[in-house]
Structure formats: C-alpha cells, structure tokens
Specification:
The chain has 94 residues and is of the alpha+beta class. It is 61% helix and 22% strand. It has 2 helices and 2 strands, in the order βααβ. Strands 1-2 form a two-stranded antiparallel ribbon. The radius of gyration is 17 Å and the shape is flat.
Length: 94
C-alpha cells in the first residue's frame, strides 16, 4: 500500500476538567450510538433485516460509556483533570 493511501489525524490532544471530559466523550459516544441505531433502522427498512454489527456496537459503546462515567467520577472525586488524546487512522480498502 502506498503511503498516500493511509492517513492519521489527531482529533483530541488536551487536558480537560472532569465535566468537560464527560461532555466531550458522552457526545462522541452518543453520536456513535445514533449512527448505529440509524444504520440498523436503515437495514431493517431497506432489506427487512437487522444489522447485527450495529446492535453489537451499540452494546459495546453503552458499556464503554458506563466505564467512562466511573473513571470520570473518580477523577472528579480526586479533584484532578484528565488528559485525552485521540488519533484516527484511515486507509483505503477494497
């Protein structure tokens, strides 16, 4: 694969208060859950079948959301901020 067929993007690289981190990460997860709910609905309407992949991802994302809440609540109780870093790797595929 040629180097120009892959790319990395830095999306998040900063320090956040627990409330800011909660808002940022909750919005991200809610957006991903909404995407998968819409995909599942679309598959159901267009092809009369459910998207098992989307159903699985929704469950995984909901579990991640709960873990993040616990982690952020601990940070809040300790009175500390959180460093969040997130990169996205994209490449072409067939």
């Amino acid at each position: 694969m040629k180097p120009e067929e892959k790319k990395e993007f830095k999306l998040i690289d900063s320090t956040f208060t627990p409330n800011e981190a909660n808002n940022l990460l909750s919005d991200l997860i809610k957006s991903k859950i909404s995407y998968h709910k819409l995909d599942d609905f679309s598959q159901h309407i267009r092809f009369e079948r459910d998207s098992q992949h989307s159903k699985n991802r929704i469950e995984q994302l909901q579990a991640t959301q709960e873990e993040l809440k616990e982690f952020i609540n601990i940070a809040k109780a300790k009175g500390v901020n959180l460093v969040i870093k997130s990169n996205v790797f994209i490449e072409y595929t067939e």
